[in-house]
Amino acid sequence: MKFSEQWLRDWISPPLSTQALADQLTMAGLEVDAIAPVAAAFDGVVVAEVVGKEPHPDADKLNVCRVDDGSGEPVQVVCGAPNVAVGQKVPFAQVGALLPGDFTIKKAKLRGVESRGMVCSASELGLEEETSAGILELPVSAPVGESFRDFMGLDDHTIDVDLTPNRGDCLSLKGLAREVGVLNRLPVAGPDIAPVPSTHDLDFPVRVEVGERCPRYIGRLIKGVDVTAETPLWMVERLRRSGVRSIDPVVDITNYVMLEIGQPLHAFDLANLHGAVIVRLAREGERLVLLDGQDISLDADTLVIADERGPLAIAGVMGGEHSGVGGQTRDIFLEAAFFAPLAIAGQARRYGLHTDASHRFERGVDADLARDAAERATALLLAITGGEPGPLVVVEDNDHLPAARSTTLRETRLTQALGMPLAVDEVTEILQRLGMTVDKRAGEWVVRVPSWRFDVAIEEDLIEEVARIHGYNRLPVRRPAARLALRADNEAKVPLTRLRRQMVARGYQEAITYSFVAPELQRAMFPEAVSPVLANPISSDLSVMRASLFPGLVRAMQHNLNRQQTRVRLFETGLTFRGPLDDLHQVPMLGALACGSRDPEGWNGDNRQADFFDIKGDLESLLSLGEVDAWRFEPAAHPALHPGQCARILHRGEEAGWIGTLHPAVRASLGLKVDALLFEVRLDALTQGRVPTFTPLSRHPEVRRDLAFLVGADLPVQALLDTIASQAGEWLSEARLFDVYRGQGVPEGRKSVALGLTWQHPSRTLNDEEINQLVDAIVTESRQHLGAELRG
């Protein structure tokens, strides 16, 4: 919200400097982003009148003018502006004047004719950024000889306040003045807004079909307006200093009233309205050409202002081109309405728009402002454009208008929150200065909230109001009490940073993807997944919360492949969301993805593509940081992973994640030409470890036996290792797989698995008889339960 300091001081002028006023607003929660002068520095410019004009004898585009600058004698000046005319009041830079850009006016001869000064345009005085086509024309009432800076009030500042979304009541001079008045205990003197008597009884019918979205709609027919009238300079300047460009008097007045009291308005050309003004929802297939020229197709739940022929405007956002006020307009229909914030929220963004009106309606506009805004705008229109006003047409739905709110503030809660007691009278006065009706009872205040403070609803809101008006810097400074005792650290837990460093050491880069993904991608990878759907997503392909890290990693890989990155290694840690919103489980996971060659490009590498066992090795390097023996892999089917190249990851017998190759159907749907290898594991399982303990080294020799088993080709080696561990006794120190063989000498459907088993006793040498008994037990158990045979 940008505003002119002078304009604010017309409402209320506390004895504060500009910077002190800005500091006060900031400390009250209305943060001032910037303070800037409204015009560049210049000196020696006065108001003058053009009293003579003749063509330059040697230049077709120049005129020799005589201007009265109040010095007593007309001054001759050569002027090239096309709009200069006798009788005009203009800004005139006298000889010796200093203009923006450090430009000094001197006596000069232009094409042989003496010129003593310069008639100035707005851009030459730093009032416009773009180069002006002609001189700046001043009102005929401008006093000749007066300093132009004083006449225009250019010793002023624009103050830019960055308001939080809950303070929509301060998106106007009225709201800001109200705050300044509260902070300085001063009355606010705004313009008197009185009902404008109607001069005819004509009106235009209004019909509201959705009262819950538009509980109040006020309209007025004004006949015979002169849209060619000139907007007064004081209004143009106030608009300019608020960042609004002057367009025509009708639009300028609606913008001015919006900035002044906070109520957006709109004016329709009555000649382009047919039958009635209707507030309704758009119908499927309806289109509207907006004031900015966009031709849009309206969604069925968009609130529109329409007539009997079709839509005229998007309610609370922007009007339509064909119904707007133009140069031929003679009669207008003035609209002032209250739209429910939830009815407007998101409508502008849906069509790529953001307007001053939508900005205000989304944050909330005082429901009681519409009538005052209509009367204020009518009075200004009659004063500037003339016309004949009709009666106000008011359509209200009292069941959906905001109801009066009351909130209770307890003394004990206020003291606890502020860290100090405040006098009862001071609290009562603060609340009353804020426009609230206060009923003081024993130990509490019962407060009725004014209509413009729709952000005050609970006790904590009242505490915040009392604190900021009393002054945050007046509250006591107390350091929080904190225990300095060190908390016990779980040494068995594997830090997340260590897992990340391990993945980086394996050649992976950490990715951070959105927590929401495309619904069709998640459906393709997890057909049965249930996760929350966003009510207002930032885009249609990011509308459902992720049930897994796989979709985000696959999209990130696709993004890199499209940019000629043929070797991708990514990992991510983050939450996944499983179940409906009322029974949502947020599960922290670590996921990884790899595609492309196994090794980076180099003279000593090869071009072999990474496969399942490469990424399994990367995962096992993570598992080795914790409880190695607690992990198992078992073949299983997963809808997102390739059949036969997929495994379920178990931790202590419970499912903890998945690993495998991306399913060919998913790969084809994404247009991928390379395999993608993925795994995903629960972080709570990954971070479980154990405290390392020292085991004394045995002084006695090891005993090793190598066993080669013939087993079924589909038998997992882990099953054989589990059998060996159960039968090999407590002194087995290592069981190592060193060969797997299929081919000549091995029957069809079988494979040879060779394992090296090592035993070592801590206090004696094991003999052959003990080892042979253990080997016999291993062979017998393997034959009976796994169908394994020793290879001859």
Report the uncertain regions: none
Number of E-type strands? 38
**Number of separate helices:** 21
Strand order of the largest sheet: 26-29-30-34-33-32-31
Q: What count of domains describes the coordinates?
A: 6
N- to C-terminal distance:
90 Å
Q: How would you characterize the largest beta sheet?
A: 7 strands, mixed
Strand content: 25-35%
SSE-based structural type: alpha+beta
Second-tier CATH architecture of the largest domain: 3-Layer(bba) Sandwich
The helicity comes to 25-40%
CATH superfamily of the largest domain: Phenylalanyl-trna Synthetase, Chain B, domain 3
Written overview of the protein:
This protein folds into six domains: 2-38 and 157-184, Phenylalanyl-tRNA Synthetase, Chain B, domain 1 (2-Layer Sandwich), CATH 3.30.56; 43-152, OB fold (Dihydrolipoamide Acetyltransferase, E2P) (Beta Barrel), CATH 2.40.50.140; 206-396, 3-Layer(bba) Sandwich (Phenylalanyl-tRNA Synthetase, Chain B, domain 3), CATH 3.50.40; 405-473, Phenylalanyl-tRNA Synthetase, Chain B, domain 1; 496-686, BirA Bifunctional Protein, domain 2, CATH 3.30.930; 703-790, 2-Layer Sandwich (Alpha-Beta Plaits). Helices cover 25% and strands 28% of the residues. The strands form ten sheets. Strands 26-29-30-34-33-32-31 form a seven-stranded mixed sheet. Helix 1 packs across helix 4 (173-184) and helix 6 (249-261) runs antiparallel to helix 10 (369-384). One of its GO terms (cellular component) is phenylalanine-tRNA ligase complex.
